[in-house]
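User: Hey, quick favor. My workstation is busy. Could you predict this chain's structure for me?
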Amino acid sequence: MSAKKISTSIKKAPASVFGAFIRKCLPVVTGWTSLLVSISFFTGTYDTAQVKLTLLHTGAVVLLGLWAALKVAEWKSPFTRQNFPFLLPILAYLGWNILSFICGPFHLESAEEFIRLLMYGGIMLLIATEFTQKDIRTLTKFIVIAAWISFTYGALQIVDGFLPGADFLPWRGFFTRRIFSTHANPNFFGAFVVFASCVTCAQYLATRKKSLLVLLGLGLVELFFTESKGAWLAYGAAAALGTFLFTNRLFPTKHIKKLNLVATGVLLCALALAGVYTAKRFQSVSFRSFTWLSTFEMVQDSPLMGTGPGSFKIIYPAYKRPQIFYIENSHNTETQHAENEYLEQWATAGTIGLAIFLWMLIFVFTSAWKNLRPVSQLSAEEQERTFYLLGYATALAGLMAHAFVDISLRFASSGLFFAVFIGVIIALSNPPQEDNAGEKICFSASWLLWAARLVLAGAVAYGAWQVLGEFKEISGAMSARKLGDGFLICCAWGVLLFCVLGVCYVYLRSAWTSRTARTGLILAATVPGLVWFYGLFQANHYYSLGVRLVQMGNAEGALPYFTRAIKLNPLLTEYRQYRANTFATTLDLTTQFSPTRGDTNEPSNDYARALKDFAYVLKYAPNHTALHQSTGQLYYAMALRASQGAAQAKSADEFQLFSQNARDNMEQAKRAFQRSLVLDPVNAETYLFLTSIALMERNPAQAQAWIDAHKRGPKGVTEEEFLEKNRHNPRMNALEAQVQKMRFSVGK
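Assistant: No problem, here it is.
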């Protein structure tokens, strides 16, 4: 029976051209994703790291799509009797987090982070099951190139600290003289320096290229200028572990004790530098201490299952220490993470999830330890494998040491490398079989195969047109007033075109070399995901444009951008919150149908639209600190409007209507402000509003009670440097004078 007469048939065949092409693409795509995520940044969005997230998401979708197409075409499971024991910790980690997410209380706001966790798990499994030593060699080259680019720009920032203007990019000086290179934050760049240096060491041992020593020296210098405590702790841990493994496992000599002392000295020096930076910025230590205490309280309330992956930012505000508000000196921002990966794993995945996470790490390090042997006993190829195993194991150790005091694993570039390192170590510890002869190859009828190819071509063309068209609109709205702005726009276009054309080539070449229709259909199914993840970047940019217009006083012009951002990314409630605040600013009470303001079925006004958006955000993020106060301010403004209407009433009925409306809105405002105080008991604005309401109600005793509560400070706060901030507030003093006058008037 021929393939032309039936839709599909499965038979034994030698390794296909398609399989060879995909296996060649997988390490290259992984390498390019790692490189671009490391070096890309974009200041045209509100979140400068959004471009890294977009590249991570799209790169992961392409990788997992190619892998799925390969396995389906070969009719072969990625899990075998040989590799399953090595993959079991990863599978357990993924399985438990899926269960924890399903059982968690909040899904919308945590969905994006949960999806990213699944991508990390998929990348681990892909590398562990498919990557050969040759593939790891290719990946390592990409990581070293990323280090060269990132370290070079870091050096330019160092020069800029002494010669202002050397760094011509628009984000120079964000952290004064602390450098951050292409990673938006000195701490994240410090983490990158640590693990990139470890991988570079492995490459040097394998190739003996002296230029890599220059790169290592440059990284060490730049680590000093990051002034990152966590990075120095990580560097010390990685250097000490690397030296210990190098002398005790790879090159055991009679000088082992002396070299171990050197490793200990390196660790102590790193700890000393971390101590210097701690004394210089002790406030960050206080911030972390209070955050850890609050996180531990979260653990105590959900010890077994946790609150679900990605839920930390939603639940944490209910546990947030009042001291944090004083330290941050802000009330409209939320802490996103626990500043300690292990504590956050414990809080979100529960005790069982943390145990599985630690099991996975211990298993990976144990596998590396067992496979590190004296180099003198190995062949040249085995030596290279051992050097890579040493480098990637120390890189992972440095990253996990940094995770004790920072959120580096939650950041795109560090999180991606966490997955890559685990996958590489398992692949080196349990090398996959390279002989694919005799695989089961799935064949499709020619008409079905061509139909699938056409579907894929259409999907790819549509996706490319959509992405390029939208980015053209975005880049047209960006300003290029300075050299750095224009340079970034050109780089952004270059990266985008490279990624779009690269995906088109890989997808179409895969479909044309494959002999099964399933390949084209699977790859076509990933295109909407690529467009959607790019849409998250686009949404962030529209949000940025809206914020910029609001700051310029053009709230009306900002509303269409907020609406477009919400449509593109419904998972992020922050966009709705900002649109609601903008509605409260414009507060057009004319009832009319306006799609640009978010109306879908019936006409509305800004008051109703704001309340609708506030209610939506509170449904999915009930502990949002600033949201309750914003809601209270809206009700307060409407109460004042109603009071003005009552004063201008032309009849008793009209007066009664406005008066009742004013009382109802003021009562709602009071409740919202009181709810806000539960989450943020140090916000002076909230006390001012509540005091003003009490004065309007001619209740001087209650007004004085709110003033006293503000001066006294929240319960549990004993630090005088914090409480002193409450005692001198000119606006509160003015209200207190009004209270005294009202008391005298009422008494008289």
